[in-house]
Amino acid sequence: MKRTFEGNALNFLRYSSVMSNAHYDMAERYRIRHRVFGLAVVIATAVVGTATFGSLAENTQTGEVWIKVGTGLLSVVATVLAALQTFLGFSELQAQHKRGADGYSDLRREIDLLLMKYPDVVGVPSEPAIAALDAVRKKLDDLDKMSPTIPDAIYEAASAKTPVYD
């Protein structure tokens, strides 16, 4: 099978489209995870704060022991959730995937223009189109190195919804 300029450019175009979609999907997943954890922390700390003020305002009775224990446990849960939110770094991962997606999108547009600029290239190594395509390949390699890993399931889902260019 002989590779052509157009065939390689279309392969790069599809790959950059799939990777862009996959990174945008991952960024969205991490955005949601960050919000869910943040919401859980806010709710837990609000309940702890309310219960604490409520127990201070009332007289101590033997039936209130479970409220104090529950408040203490909820306080620990809120602390753990806040620590996990920081430790897991969902917002940072979201930003990394967003940068990767933007880079692949930019490259996809560059390949589109390259295909329009050189519609009749046959693939002779000395042609400027081949040098431009090699520059695209290098940019793809750099993006692959700097971008976070995409799980196989996310890549396959993005690939399934990305059209095949011919």
Plain-language structure description:
This protein is mainly α and 166 residues long. The protein has one domain. Helices cover 81% and strands 0% of the residues.
Give short descriptive properties of this protein.
166 residues, mainly alpha
In short:
With 166 residues, the protein is mainly α.
What's the layout of helices and strands?
Layout (H helix, E strand, L loop, with lengths): L4 H53 L7 H24 L1 H28 L10 H19 L5 H10 L5
Helix pairs in contact: 1-2, 1-3, 1-4, 1-5, 3-4
Helices and strands, in order, run as HHHHH
- Total of helices: 5
Number of strands: 0
Helix content estimate: over 70%
Residue stretches low in confidence (pLDDT < 50, at least 5 long) are none
* Spatial extent as radius of gyration: 26 Å
User: What is the domain tally?
Assistant: 1
Q: What is the strand content?
A: under 5%
